[in-house]
Amino acid sequence: MLQKTPKILLFFIAFTFVLNLIQSSVTELLLDEAYYWYYAQNLAWGYFDHPPMVAWMIALGSSLCEGELGVRLLSCVLYALNLLFIWWLIDHPKKDRFTLHYCVLVFAVTLMHAYGFLTLPDTPLLFFTTLFLLAYKRFITNNTLLNTVFLGLVMAAMMYSKYHGFLVIIFVLLSNIKLVFNRNAWLSVVISLICYLPHFLWLVQNDFISLGYHLSDRPNSPYKFADFTLGYIVNLMALFGLLFPWVYYALATTKIGDRFNRALVFLTYGFIGFFFISSFSRKVQAQWMIAISIPLIIITFNYLAEHAKARFWILRLGLANVVILLFLRVWLITGSVLPIPFETHYNKAWTSYIHDAVGDMPVVFENSYGNAAVYAFYTGATSYSLNNTQYRLNQYSLDNSEEAVQDKRVLYVSRYLNKGDLEFIGAKGEAYRGKYLDSFESFRKLQCIIPQEEQPIKPEQEISLKVYNPYSEDIDLNKLKFGVTFLNKYKRVIETQFVKVMPTDPQALYVQKKDTTTFRLSIPKPKTDEAAYLRMGISENGLYLGYNGKNISLK
Question: Does 442 reside within a domain?
Answer without folding.
Answer: no
